[in-house]
Amino acid sequence: MMLSKRFQIWSWFLSFLFVLSTSSARPKPYAMRISCGARQNVHTAPTNTLWHKDFAYTGGIPFNVTRPSYITPPLETLRYFPLSEGPNNCYNINRVPKGHYSVRIFFGLVAQPTIDNEPLFDISIEGSQINSLKAGWTKHDEQAFAEAMLFLTDGTASICFHSTGHGDPAIISLEILQVDENSYYFGPQWGQGTILRTVTRVTCGTGKSKFGVDYGGDPWGGDRFWHAISSFRPGSDEERSTEETIKHTSLSPNYYPNGLYRTAIIGTEKQPDLEHIMDVDPNKNYSIWLHFAEIDSVREVGQRVFDILINGDTVFQGIDIIKLSGDGYSSLVLNTTVAVSGRTLTITLQPKEGSIAIISAIEVFEIITVESGTSRDEVRALQSLKKALALPLRFGWNGDPCVPQQHPWSGIDCQYNSTSNTWVIDGLGLGNQGLRGFLPKDISKLQHLQNINLSENSIRGPIPASLGSVTPLQILDLSFNFFNGSIPESLGQLTSLRRLNLNGNDLTGRVPAALGGQLLHGASFNFTDNSGLCGIPGLPSCVPHLSSGAKVGIGFGVCIAFLLLAVCSVCWWKRRQNILRAQQIAGKFIYLLTLTSMLQIFKGLFQSTQIHTKMFTQLGMAEKWHLTLN
Ligand SMILES: *[C@@H]1O[C@H](CO)[C@@H](O)[C@H](O)[C@H]1NC(C)=O
Ligand SMILES: *[C@@H]1O[C@H](CO)[C@@H](O)[C@H](O)[C@H]1NC(C)=O
Ligand SMILES: *[C@@H]1O[C@H](CO)[C@@H](O)[C@H](O)[C@H]1NC(C)=O
Ligand SMILES: *[C@@H]1O[C@H](CO)[C@@H](O)[C@H](O)[C@H]1NC(C)=O
Ligand SMILES: *[C@@H]1O[C@H](CO)[C@@H](O)[C@H](O)[C@H]1NC(C)=O
Ligand SMILES: *[C@@H]1O[C@H](CO)[C@@H](O)[C@H](O)[C@H]1NC(C)=O
Ligand SMILES: *[C@@H]1O[C@H](CO)[C@@H](O)[C@H](O)[C@H]1NC(C)=O
């Protein structure tokens, strides 16, 4: 009894401790790994890493992979994007918590010899271009991926691949790994406005190239790849390594793995300085991080002192690792920012008299200024336009319309507004593109359009009246489509209009007077080849327009007229019947008259004067009737 009660108290106490420890521990960082083209989730050795299946993120074609480098994760599939699907293709990953991320993309080769083996393409994250593959990348292991650190703040990660006309982009994997909020803080420029693109990350001295997980690194550092180099200048430097644990590693905010500092490259008595030369893109700013630990025989302050020069300029003077890190086997990290105008970046460690230089690791990042995207309302309007016009796949309207600036959507013109720090659309040039569908009224949400050309397509339905609110519009060419209905009156509000081509459609009705009026202002209009348009010179005149009251009036009038006509017809018919009857009678009299004449000839004066008188009276009456009728 006593025992069981004591046990209970103990177990409560233990579970309390457990809850306390887990709640005070940092939550695990967000990590999303996608195995592109995979139909099932995949786990890979040696760390049993989970890769999510590739489901409904994007278009493209799944295929079997040829991995160009041993660094690429051991995945079997990729996804590639043929140009027929358009030049811009994106993975859109939702529900990404707001935070600081390391995003990494591994490239592959489609396992089919008929397809160009080394595609060259550009990569952007959230509209900022972070990488451009260079010819020959498949021959350099560490160029098999692109990596950048940035803040994701809108709950999504949009990663886009931009074709450059050299083969189809082919992607093996995407990783979105949360890192410390303050990692790689390099100075006031650092923050949401900048991206750090990994140029190189090398571990110096003996040892294999490794990922952070292989080093047993803290997940909050992201899963960094450290490319091993054993010498800067073979023959004039040496390797060093130790089994000792290095102090002050795996610390916030960068969580460098301990193993990184257990190896180093060191100068020699004959050649005490060290020099690392690398190729870089010119005219960029770079953030450079240098790692040191005293793992050699030096134990006293002042025994190893060196300056650090970048492209010949001294950036750190009199570096003494023991002094700065506090001890031997203790890590020291230095960072600096440099602007590089040429194509090489040279890091020189120049020891003072009697010293020899040593270094454990080097990281170089390009500092990229984040592109400001297109105004959200305009993006939505373009998406609704894409749908309504049934834009063919080859247009590739994916990602942001205006950025990266190197890869805007085809058929649109962009303009940067430095006040609002956004891009807006000022032109739509989609003439002769085989478009179907209709023009949505949402087009008016593109409030900065100066130029719309949708000529020579097969667009149907009405011209949206909302176009009249796009006041900057100067050129509106909707010619040679199947627009029907009437021209909206609202187009008369477009006072900047210089050219309006509506010819070659199925438009009907009167050309709005306001447009007719603008003819005077020197704008050029074309309304021809619309069977039903009327009302301006060159077009048929319009049948007068009648109000419903007028219509009732006219209807009433027509009825009266019809009644009158009917009455007249009846009268006329009756009269005619009378005439006919009278003519018949007259005919009889004429016959009688002839007979009488004959009687006169043959019988002479033998007949009585009474008969004569009666006969002639009736004949006169018939003649009278005849005169009135004619
Ligand atoms: C990919 O490889 C698997 C076996 O490894 C094979 O069954 C499948 O047909 C391949 N797919 C393609 C598209 O070649
Ligand atoms: C990088 O260097 C700057 C000064 O140049 C310093 O303010 C900053 O704390 C350093 N970053 C880290 C993470 O040590
Ligand atoms: C480099 O940084 C400076 C400010 O430190 C800035 O004026 C310049 O525009 C940057 N250069 C590039 C290419 O980003
Ligand atoms: C830029 O944006 C601001 C604020 O939205 C606006 O007031 C201004 O007119 C715009 N400038 C141009 C040139 O469109
Ligand atoms: C509109 O596009 C068509 C076809 O591309 C072109 O022929 C026409 O000249 C363009 N219209 C204007 C006003 O530029
Ligand atoms: C315009 O054409 C569509 C079919 O393309 C038709 O449904 C609609 O009734 C037409 N509108 C007018 C006013 O003729
Ligand atoms: C108007 O368009 C028709 C074709 O629909 C063309 O023949 C004519 O030359 C154009 N008129 C003007 C003034 O451009």
From TrEMBL:
Transmembrane spans: 552-573, 585-606
Annotated keywords: Membrane, Signal, Transmembrane, Transmembrane helix
Keyword Transmembrane (UniProt): yes
Domain Malectin-like as annotated: residue spans: 34-366
GO cellular component: membrane
Protein's membrane topology: Single-pass membrane protein
Signal peptide bounds: 1-25
UniProt-annotated location(s): Membrane
InterPro entries the UniProt entry points to: Leu-rich_rpt, LRR_dom_sf, Malectin-like_Carb-bd_dom
Highest taxon listed in the record's lineage: Eukaryota
Keyword Endoplasmic reticulum: no
UniProt xrefs under PANTHER family: OS07G0107800 PROTEIN-RELATED (PTHR45631), RECEPTOR-LIKE PROTEIN 4 (PTHR45631:SF181)
Protein name: Malectin-like domain-containing protein
Annotated source species: Trapa natans (Water chestnut)
Source taxonomy: Eukaryota, Viridiplantae, Streptophyta, Embryophyta, Tracheophyta
